[in-house]
Amino acid sequence: MNSGILVYLLLLCSCYCVVIAKTDSGDLDALRSVKNQWQNTPPNWGKGDPCGRKWEGIYCNDSRVISIKLSGINLAGPFPEDILSLSELRTLDLSNNRGLTGPLPSNIGNLQNLVHLVLVGCNFSGPIPESIVTLQKLTHLFLNMNHFSGNIPRSIGNLTNLVWLDLSENQLGGTLPVSNMTTSGLDKLLKAKHFHLGRNKLSGEIPSELFSSGMSLIHVILNENQLNGSIPETLGLVQNLTVIRLDRNSLSGSVPQNLSMLTNVSELYLANNNLSGSIPDLTRMTLLTFVDLSNNNFDATSVPQWVEELPNLTTLVMANTSLEGNISTTLFSLPQIQTVVLNNNQLNGTVEIPANVSMNLRLLDLRNNSIDGFSSGIYNKSILLDENPFCLRPEAEGNCTTVQPSKYLNFIPLLKCAPPTCFSDPIIPSDCKRPYLGNLVFKSFNFSDLANMRYYDFLNDTLQPLLSPQVSIDRVCLVSSMIDTNGYLVLNISFFPPGKNYFNRTGISLVGNALNNHVFDSPYGPYYYIDKGYNFPGRTKNTALIIGVTVGGFVLLVLTIAAGVYAYRQMKIAQRAAKLNNPFLSWKKGNIPQVKGARWFSFEDVRQCTSDFSSESEIGVGGYGKVYKGKLITGEVVAIKRAQKGSMQGALEFKTEIELLSRVHHKNVVNLAGFCYDKGEQMLIYEYVPNGSLRAALSGKSGVRLDWTRRLNIALGAARGLAYLHELADPPIIHRDIKSDNILLTDHLNAKVADFGLSIPFSDDKGQVATQVKGTLGYLDPEYYMTQILTEKSDVYSFGVVMLELVTGKLPLERHTYIVRVVRDSLKETGNVYNLVDPALRSDILIETDEFVNLAMKCLQDTGDERPSMNEVVKEIESIIEASNMYYDVESSTTSASFDVTRDSGYPYNSYGSMDSRMSSPFIK
């Protein structure tokens, strides 16, 4: 019997060795090391052989690894240097893994055979390594949507085979590098068709040497940088150009006359600069579809004649361009015209919409001109005429609007590919398949009528057929479309799996690779794809048990043998990872940014004030780590949040919280006393808030009794804290993770907003940020989730959920129910939510509860424009409390059991008692 078992094990070992032989030993070692450095690798990694057993995302030619395609599978960790030993690697796609952080290895140039490097939508940072210029076979370089800084490597011109160069939406600075006596620059990339460098911090002039007639460029995208000087005439030599985006810079001078020689250009963006002189004559550019010349300093002139001679023009935007005189009716009759925006000029006379007006025209914006007459005939589409003399006349009634356009246009077409709850509810209903959601973001496009469904036919006509041979897809659906604040077209799309209810990792990765590696040729010019993450189903217990029984023993044996070999390697890896993930490298000694009132503490300082992190000092625990109560040498009592390995908050978020909290000071916002980043530890040190979180109080865990009056005051305090962040902080801040766990209660039960790890500063003039979706399920704004456009109204939605918690005492997600959906259903069926009120409140007098719930539902509207601001929320809660106080004032005058309901009395947890026996209705108005 024993000999039989021995023979079986030997046979198993020999088989295993044969499998191992299918992958080159060096590649195998590299992949195993990569697996140890990354979190959330595919479940079959480490089982069998990468090439023979086909690890997910690993593609081989014979025994060598040639492709790694792991887009959108939630990887986390640094960029492993061991990847650089995969010498035959041709494609590396790690896009849409937002947990990947730190810099790229300085010796990334070792991947001599690399052709496609796709790192879109990760969180890599630091400079682009100079060694990248030695990747001579590279044709596609996508580093967009990261946090790369420093200059563009000057010698990047050595990548003579490069076709795609996309470094957009980073923090790259310096000037555009061109060749000098010793080094090649961007001007030497003669095969390149795409220069995508927009939304960075590039400065200086656009060098005239950058462009030449020998270039193959079709896209030049330099929008939203800090470029100045004039537009070089050499741009007019690049005859293949189809898209030019130079908008949102500080360019000046006249537009070169030879620009009109670029007869292949279809989209031209020159808006928001300081351009002067004559408006350029674009007569010869007959393929133009989209023209935006807004907000420049051109000479005063009438609407150019060439506008009426562009047969393909769909969109004309010339706001604030010194236009004057009358508008020719021919403009409105162009066959393809969809949008005309001419506001903030000096146009005058009478505007007449002709009988032969184009049926495609959807929006005419003539606000703030000198128009004194208007005739629309039978035309009834969107016309904006505010702030014109005509609007003061009696006949203007019905033709002038006082409603300003939205910050961005948002259309949800009438394409019912699935119930709305399949997209917006945190809990996917049982009748829904699990869609893969993401934004297809076009940096330029040739139309503006977003409600016209024919522009989205490509989703099913070309995109789905392209993917179908590799990925089984039931359908591709459009969820919404919008033009964001950057002037980009954002299509929120969903991929639905066939038959089964979910995609596997291979399917998700292949979709991401087809889009971000531009295997799919878009009909609307340059784009990128940012997904919204995907929750993969776990392996069933039975399957795991079978696999464990089959190979567990042998794997254990192999790991035991290899332990000694890998010990030293893992130590080095850990040291490298710690260095790569340090967000404080820019905080050099003696050069720490000003953080008012926040001190740096050493690890030893914190250890001493918590009695060596004793269990007696521990006061809480969460996904981030443990929270300890400590006493500083000054006698100040503090709460210390200590991160644990694998915590939800990363080092960059830790740094964000320090920088933001140190600048905010309000009685309803938790105060940051200091921080510790020492000996591999990251800790935040706050003022001590003794009564814990609102969630703990509502659950009864903290022993705090919250009657209805106290809950109203807590809502008011938290609302004031949020209103301060939105309107008075400098810069204003979107919290992004408002929930009852992040509202703390003082000894007098005053509310303080806490935990700023996900917070983002925003500009008052925009009020919105295009960013990757983060937050807590149940509190997450569905509009933010669907569009990835974050506004302060996203916090308002989350606060609305907290308000429902205050009424019901329930978690947002509880027993497969979503409290927002439950409350809406109850209001629809019964008109109130009394059946949902927290049992702990049943003995209280529920003053103005209907109004409080109605306010919460206003905060929970589907779109941000329909929600109140936090300042408006504060005023409404104040009114509710004032009405409540008036009721108690009346009651106190008729009963000997008089008490003050607006002031805490003595012991902070005392209840006010019940007067419910005197009330005929549970809700008092």
In short:
This protein is an alpha/beta fold.
Structure notes:
With 925 residues, this protein is α/β, with parallel strands linked by helices. The N and C termini lie far apart (84 Å). The chain folds into four domains: 1-201 and 548-581, Leucine-rich repeat, LRR (right-handed beta-alpha superhelix) (Alpha-Beta Horseshoe); 409-531, Alpha-Beta Plaits (2-Layer Sandwich), CATH 3.30.70; 591-688, Phosphorylase Kinase, domain 1 (2-Layer Sandwich); 694-924, Orthogonal Bundle (Transferase(Phosphotransferase), domain 1), CATH 1.10.510.10. The chain is globular, with a radius of gyration of 31 Å. 43% of the residues are buried. It has 15 helices and 49 strands.
Keywords, please?
alpha/beta; 925 residues; 49 strands; Phosphorylase Kinase, domain 1; 23% helix; 15-stranded mixed sheet; Leucine-rich repeat, LRR (right-handed beta-alpha superhelix); Alpha-Beta Plaits
The overall average pLDDT, rounded, is: 81
Number of helices: 15
Query: How many strands in all?
Result: 49
Q: What is the first-to-last residue Cα distance? A: 84 Å
Share of helix among residues?
A: 10-25%
CATH architecture of the largest domain, by name, is Alpha-Beta Horseshoe
Structural class: alpha/beta
Here the CATH topology of the largest domain equals: Leucine-rich repeat, LRR (right-handed beta-alpha superhelix)
- CATH evolutionary superfamily of the largest domain: Ribonuclease Inhibitor
CATH class of the largest domain: Alpha Beta
Task: Record the strand order, biggest sheet.
Answer: 1-2-4-6-8-10-12-14-16-18-20-22-24-26-28
Shape: globular
- Unreliably modeled segments: 1-21, 402-415, 539-551, 573-581, 588-594, 892-925
Strand content: 15-25%
Largest sheet: 15 strands, mixed
Using only C-alpha atoms, the radius of gyration works out to 31 Å
